[in-house]
């Protein structure tokens, strides 16, 4: 384990959990890397960070469907007001109304307001005037948020996006282009209210922009959710953190994946960082801990040999353009042995998160099979999901699965598909399928 710290903000530690022992001829090395940030501003409540350290844009769906029922539009206005009340003094912020076009609601003229008593009151007044009408073109909302946030000097730049429908008024390519343009420029949490939106669209926005995705089936839950999201944003202190993976000559990277608090494949996000090294973006950090699964393939070696298989570092860019600062570092090792007990033991953390990643996959496969009418395939996949959730202690996912299947025997994964499933229950399971539980220490 290695500990590093910045002059201000939380201290980072990196712990590596693995079985480093390989049999003769063995090549695959797996490790769980736990990154923990402690001592930041979120300890004990909202941070006492410097004014101007964060900028936030709230993007609210104001399309015509938000009035059906009217509780959606009312809930969105109230939730946004609660989020604004949660802003720390000195935080830059703006409100955007999203329809088939994006419109600045507050403060306007391409500017960001600075949170204080007066601007919060003005923003709440602007929210009360919002009405629903028009279509949905989410790419335009994101591009406007990007323009607004680009003017902020704050290191933490974040968006919160709420939608209740499908992105029907722009081509899928337009949304993809907008997401590509915004990648690396700000992070974004995405929420779907009601049940008429596309899980893949909302989850894709959050995944691309390193935020969270969730469903709020009942508009009455929006205020609590928006408040929690904003509190989380206010707790962020270190932006643009990257997981840097260096490997020696001859070592191939097989997998880099976040496995807690959610499963997110990072392999396709790698950018070069010098000889034998690559960076994988992780977004912004406050007081929190995340787990990553790293798998590499090493050259064959004789019994008794050992090598450094990979070096994992947490780095942040230097604002002055110099070399990135290292926040923490851990080592992944490989040791060849003829002791079968040592070489065949599976590390508990690796085994747990391998199961959690499979759980996310089989839930999605089971729901896809159910939608296509493949009842046998859906039963088999969702039964395996029930088995994995029970074995790993993932009680939240087990509860969501019980809304879709009748569980006969969780230990064996024996289930029956329910004849009728509420759309909100199915969408909740799909949206939250990537959430994991930490390994029991």
Count of DSSP H/I helices: 11
Please give the largest β-sheet: 7 strands, mixed
Number of strands: 21
Low-confidence stretches: 41-49
What integer value in Å does the Rg equal?
A: 23 Å
How helical, in percent, are the residues? 25-40%
Shape, please?
Answer: globular
Mean pLDDT: 94
Overview of the structural elements:
- With 441 residues, the chain is α+β, with helices and mostly antiparallel strands.
- It is built from 11 helices and 21 strands.
- The protein has helices at 71-86, 117-128, 138-150, 172-182, 199-208, 222-234, 340-344, 348-371, 375-392, 395-401, 423-431; strands spanning 2-5, 11-18, 21-22, 28-38, 54-61, 92-98, 102-106, 113-114, 156-163, 187-193, 213-216, 238-246, 252-260, 264-265, 271-272, 277-285, 288-297, 306-316, 325-336, 405-409, 414-417.
- The strands form 4 sheets. Strands 5, 6, 7, 8, 9, 10 and 11 form a 7-stranded mixed beta sheet that branches. A 6-stranded antiparallel beta sheet has the order 1-2-4-17-13-14, with helices on one face. A 6-stranded mixed beta sheet has the order 3-19-18-12-16-15.
- The two termini are 17 Å apart.
List keywords for this structure.
seven-stranded mixed sheet; alpha+beta; single chain; six-stranded antiparallel sheet; about 450 residues; 21 strands
Sequence-ordered SSE layout with sheet pairings:
Elements: E1 2-5, E2 11-18, E3 21-22, E4 28-38, E5 54-61, H1 71-86, E6 92-98, E7 102-106, E8 113-114, H2 117-128, H3 138-150, E9 156-163, H4 172-182, E10 187-193, H5 199-208, E11 213-216, H6 222-234, E12 238-246, E13 252-260, E14 264-265, E15 271-272, E16 277-285, E17 288-297, E18 306-316, E19 325-336, H7 340-344, H8 348-371, H9 375-392, H10 395-401, E20 405-409, E21 414-417, H11 423-431
Parallel strand pairs: 3-19, 5-6, 5-9, 9-10, 10-11
Antiparallel strand pairs: 1-2, 2-4, 4-17, 6-7, 6-8, 12-16, 12-18, 13-14, 13-17, 15-16, 18-19, 20-21
């Amino acid at each position: 384990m290695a500990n590093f710290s910045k002059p201000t903000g939380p201290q980072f530690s990196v712990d590596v959990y693995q079985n480093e022992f390989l049999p003769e001829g063995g090549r695959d090395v797996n490790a769980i890397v736990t990154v923990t940030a402690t001592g930041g501003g979120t300890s004990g409540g909202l941070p006492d960070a410097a004014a101007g350290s964060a900028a936030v844009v709230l993007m609210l769906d104001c399309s015509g469907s938000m009035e059906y029922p009217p509780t959606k539009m009312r809930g969105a206005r109230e939730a946004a007001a609660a989020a604004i009340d949660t802003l720390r003094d000195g935080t830059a912020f703006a409100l955007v109304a999203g329809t088939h076009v994006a419109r600045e609601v507050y403060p306007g003229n391409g500017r960001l307001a600075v949170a204080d008593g007066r601007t919060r009151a003005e923003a709440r007044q602007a929210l009360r005037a919002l009405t629903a009408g028009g279509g949905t073109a989410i790419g335009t909302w994101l591009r406007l948020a990007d323009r607004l946030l680009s003017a902020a000097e704050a290191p933490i730049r974040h968006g919160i996006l709420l939608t209740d429908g499908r992105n029907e008024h722009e081509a899928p390519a337009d949304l993809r282009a907008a997401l590509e343009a915004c990648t690396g420029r700000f992070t974004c949490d995405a929420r779907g209210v009601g049940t008429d939106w596309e899980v893949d669209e909302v989850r894709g926005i959050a995944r691309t922009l390193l935020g969270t995705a969730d469903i709020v089936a009942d508009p009455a839950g929006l205020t609590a959710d928006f408040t929690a999201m904003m509190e989380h944003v206010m707790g962020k202190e270190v932006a643009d953190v990257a997981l840097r993976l260096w490997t020696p000559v001859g070592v191939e990277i097989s997998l880099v994946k976040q496995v807690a608090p959610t499963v997110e494949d990072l392999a396709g996000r790698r950018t070069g960082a010098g000889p034998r090294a690559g960076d994988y973006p992780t977004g912004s950090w406050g007081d929190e801990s995340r787990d990553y699964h790293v798998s590499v393939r090493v050259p064959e070696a004789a019994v008794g040999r050992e090598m450094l298989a990979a070096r994992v570092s947490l780095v942040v860019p230097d604002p002055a353009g110099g070399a990135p600062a290292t926040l923490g570092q851990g080592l992944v090792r490989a040791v060849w042995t003829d002791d079968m007990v040592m070489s065949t033991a599976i590390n508990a953390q690796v085994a747990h998160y391998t199961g959690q990643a499979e759980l996310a996959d089989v839930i999605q496969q089971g729901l896809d099979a159910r939608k296509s009418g493949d009842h046998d395939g859906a039963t088999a996949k969702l039964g395996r999901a029930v088995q994995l959730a029970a074995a790993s202690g993932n009680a939240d996912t087990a509860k969501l699965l019980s809304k879709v299947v009748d569980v006969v025997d969780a230990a064996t994964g024996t289930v029956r598909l329910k004849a009728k499933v509420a759309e909100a229950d199915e969408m909740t399971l799909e949206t939250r399928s990537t959430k994991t539980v930490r390994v029991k220490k």
